[in-house]
Amino acid sequence: MEIQTLHKIENKILKKSGIDFIRIGFALFFVIGVLTYTFVHNDGISNNLFLAVAALIGAYMAMNIGANDVANNVGPAVGSKAITMGGAILLAAVFEASGALIAGGEVVKTIKKGIIDIAAFGGNPDPFIWAMMAALLAAALWLNFATAMKAPVSTTHSIVGGVMGAGIAAAGFSIVSWATMAKIAASWVISPLLGGIIAAAFLYAIKKSILFQEDKITAAKKYVPIFVALMSWAFVTYLVLKGLKKIWPSVVEFLNALPLITLEVTKKPSFLTALIIGAVVALAIYLLLRSKYHYKTELQNSKKAVNALFNIPLIFAAALLSFAHGANDVANAIGPLAAINDAIINGGISSKASIPLWVMGVGALGIALGLGLYGPKLIRTVGSEITELDQIRAFSIAMAASITVIIASQLGLPVSSTHIAIGGVFGVGFLREYLQNSKPKEVITVDKEFLANEKSSLEKLKDELKACKKKDEKSLEDYKKIVELYKKIEKEEKLIKATKKQIKRVEKIEYVKRDAIKKIVAAWIITVPAAAILSAVLFFTIRGIML
After folding, report:
1. Which secondary structure element, helix H or strand E, spans residue 352, and what is its range?
2. Torsions phi, psi of 349, nearest 5?
3. What number is the average pLDDT over the span 56-73?
4. 148 shares its domain with 262
5. In terms of pTM, does the model score above 0.90?
6. Is the dihedral of CA 331, 334, 336, 340 positive or negative?
7. Which of 43, 195, 333, 410 has a 20 to 30 Å separation from 438 between CA atoms?
């Protein structure tokens, strides 16, 4: 048996090692392919080898974004079993790449969020290029480490830390805009707090209006169309604001071609325009669902049946979040690569740089590949290892992700999409704890009364045992009684111990795993300083090699 067990363990290890080698093989094939293409494509440009190496690092960074950051968009849908792991990976890969290539920005700020002053480089492109390479590699390495530790962290914060560290190494602490860094630090609190509150609020609203009702079918037919319409309103508004900036003029031209519609041609959509478009779509979806559910007779009066009504909305939410993420965060993440490309080709430093199609392609394909190869680990963490999710809870998290970004962008608050999503997961978990802990007070009262009676019985048994032991002359019956009393006392003590454990368990039910919270929050806090220190070390290393 031991030999068979060892063989089974050995086969599992070999199988896992084989899968890991295949993953590494695909990853190496991609980054070497990017290196080769960039070198050949930019032949004739001075420093084209340096650009090719930067592209390789950019490809590595993109894969790490796919492995870590994208899990927030599809993790809740997978955890709630609205979609399979394979389906989620395929959906996210397609929509992330589509968002980057179709709606990704044509121009990106070379210094993310203006955290350092490029004037400090004195117009010298070399240290600027080294700094951007160090920032990109440091952010990628940190994301890789975080993914290995199963900690979802912010891609933006990783890049911010990388740029800050390399900037300080290149030109000193005065190069950093500390006011901007303070805002970014504030997002560590603002993002999860807003995400958690909004997610918990929607979950409570759904429970109150549908799940807590005796007739769940009638309540679901009335309120599910409203909740899905609200989700549609939020997501369409979010998508118009965050995902259609690049193609907005073309969208306006198409809409103006329709009868009775006249919109002013602008570079990007206004908040009011996005709200109106979202409201129109939401109204159409509400009317469609209300009509559909009105004639739906096979619904069962159960939580499971209500949950199933949120499956399709969740899949759409995962797709739209992935598209918007591809349109925004991909361009931001490959900003250093675009900056390096611009500095090498133009021989100078610019505050903004155009993103060539091949650079955007590196980001889009790298994210899709990284998601497929290493994404499942973080998807499981977000979807099931922090708290248990069903479709309604996952729906509430998706709502929080879109609404929080909309509110924050209009108020000018710095937020992280990663922190919002994980905050939403925390929010629904803590709400479940609160509701569960407020329910069983009657049960606890009964258990405590039972415990008091058992303690009283135990004391009587112990007194009886003492009395038997005090007898100077004991008969056979006395010895039998003493043995019987010991057995009864042992049984009572076990029962009392079990009742105490039951009371403690009921009094404090934990639906959110505390170890997961500690690990994730610690990773959030050290992301910027860790990436900064690593970036500074890499900058000095690169400079030492080049000089």
Report:
1. strand 352-354
2. -110, 130
3. 88
4. yes
5. no
6. negative
7. 195
